[in-house]
């Protein structure tokens, strides 16, 4: 028997609180030398690992691996394009978002917190029955964990939206609602 929805929310809240507490401990020793990652401009790339928690009750909670490349300067920590592989944990569904990414702290000086926006298209394989293309949006807030001369690590907390459509299967219509997901991730940028 599964955990009731309010109990799931409490469990997720405890996990998020624990992660934020750990993040605050790690950021106390975050590097901030004069010559660091945030003072450089030019080519940028990064990798991330996230968990997307399905808020719509469709059993689509997933583990996601993503990467991007583009440009960085003192205002934009990332301005480019990226791709992700989202693998549902409870079924065979997959999503492959292709997106534009903007990450900034709205300042030309290094800041601890930042905002990130991803937007584009998601190519969805739903239960191995159908393939669809839908809208993909993912606004997030983040906190820098540590950085060096050529790298920076971060933690993000956000929301993910993937649009989907109902489809016909076995002489009937299979309901396939849009996905709303809470997103928790870690990443590294170079």
Written description of the protein model:
There is one protein chain. With about 190 residues, the protein is mainly beta. It has one helix spanning about 5-25, and strands at about 40-55, 60-70, 75-90, 95-105, 115-125, 130-145, 150-160, 165-170, 170-175, 180-190. The strands form 2 sheets. An 8-stranded antiparallel beta barrel has the order 1-2-3-4-5-6-7-10. The chain has a two-stranded antiparallel sheet with strand order 8-9. Residues about 25-35 have low confidence and may be disordered. A hairpin with a 5-residue loop joins strand 3 and strand 4.
Quaternary structure: single chain
Global morphology: elongated
Q: Helices and strands: which structural class?
A: mainly beta
Instruction: Please indicate the percent range of residues in DSSP E strands (runs of 2 or more).
Output: over 45%
Secondary structure: helix percent: 10-25%
Q: Regions with pLDDT < 50 over 5+ consecutive residues?
A: 26-33
- Measured between the Cα atoms of the first and last residue, the distance is 44 Å
Strand line-up across the major sheet: 1-2-3-4-5-6-7-10
Largest sheet features: 8 strands, antiparallel, barrel
State the helix count. Answer: 1
Rg over CA atoms, rounded to whole Å, is 18 Å
Instruction: Compute the average pLDDT.
Output: 84
Number of strands: 10
């Amino acid at each position: 028997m599964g955990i009731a929805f309010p109990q799931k929310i409490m469990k997720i809240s405890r996990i998020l609180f624990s992660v934020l507490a750990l993040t605050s401990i790690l950021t106390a020793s975050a590097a901030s030398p004069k010559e660091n990652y945030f003072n450089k401009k030019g080519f940028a790339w990064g990798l991330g690992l996230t968990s997307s928690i399905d808020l719509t009750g469709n059993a689509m909670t997933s583990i996601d691996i993503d990467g991007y490349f583009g440009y960085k300067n003192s205002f934009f920590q990332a301005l480019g394009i990226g791709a992700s592989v989202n693998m549902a944990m409870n079924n065979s569904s997959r999503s492959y978002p292709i997106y534009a990414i903007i990450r900034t702290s709205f300042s030309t000086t290094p800041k601890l917190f930042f905002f990130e926006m991803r937007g584009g298209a998601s190519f969805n394989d739903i239960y191995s029955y159908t393939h669809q293309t839908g809208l993909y949006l993912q606004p997030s807030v983040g906190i820098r964990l540590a950085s060096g001369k050529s790298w920076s690590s971060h933690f993000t907390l956000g929301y993910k939206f993937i649009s989907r459509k109902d489809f016909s299967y076995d002489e009937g219509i299979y309901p396939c609602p849009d996905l709303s997901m809470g997103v928790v991730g870690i990443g590294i940028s170079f």
